[in-house]
Amino acid sequence: MSSSAYFRYLVDVKDGLATPASSITINNTSISRDHWHKRRATGGKRKPLRKKRKFELGRPAANTKLGARRIHTVRTRGGNKKYRALRLDQGNFSWGSEGTTRKSRIIDVVYNASNNELVRTKTLVKNAIVTIDATPFRQWYESHYALPLGRKKGTKLPEGDADILSKKRSKKVEKKYKARQRLAKVEALLEEQFQSSRVLACISSRPGQCGRADGYLLEGKELEFYNRKIKAKKGK
């Protein structure tokens, strides 16, 4: 700083237009996972034996929101990478009983056992219960079994879907479909969801670590349990 600039700075400090250098504090705090900065169980203070270490650091939570895909990479120990998903709107979901996986759009966050605030802010975390678009699973089911799924009786099907179900097939192929259809049973509660084109799913990946919101469709006892919880929450 030149002498004239320094003089102007002193005048500004005097007039209250600038902050004196002595009162400027640099906030050097960060999230730390060490234990030695905490007090003892007795309430006594500990003397710090060393400075902060990189291996004791903590990072802010990702708080992945529901929205257009945005992922940041984080350099971690050993030059490895973490994929910090800030926003996601789709994922790969597995239909366990049918042994198939489809990419589907995440529509909404409806339940979280740990915190209702995560539902209100539509935050995607592991074990969050979400509603997803059922169309990819219905399309797969109808092409695999040649049977309608979640269709109300008497409703006219779209052209593409009607073609799949009423397509002419050879006797050999027809026999193959007939064998499949014997095992094509979908539980009533899940089929009911397919009628609204939205199914409940659970996120099993960690969006803040791997940058993906993958999971599985809820079925059986688990589906009954979460259905009950969601209805109870709506009734309040």
UniProtKB/TrEMBL annotation:
InterPro entries: Ribosomal_eS8, Ribosomal_eS8_CS, Ribosomal_protein_eS8_euk, Ribosomal_Se8/biogenesis_NSA2
GO CC annotations, alphabetized: ribonucleoprotein complex; ribosome
Organism: Timema poppense
GO BP: translation
Entry's family note: Belongs to the eukaryotic ribosomal protein eS8 family.
Keyword tags: Ribonucleoprotein, Ribosomal protein
GO MF annotation list: structural constituent of ribosome
Designated name of the protein: 40S ribosomal protein S8
One matching Pfam family: Ribosomal_S8e
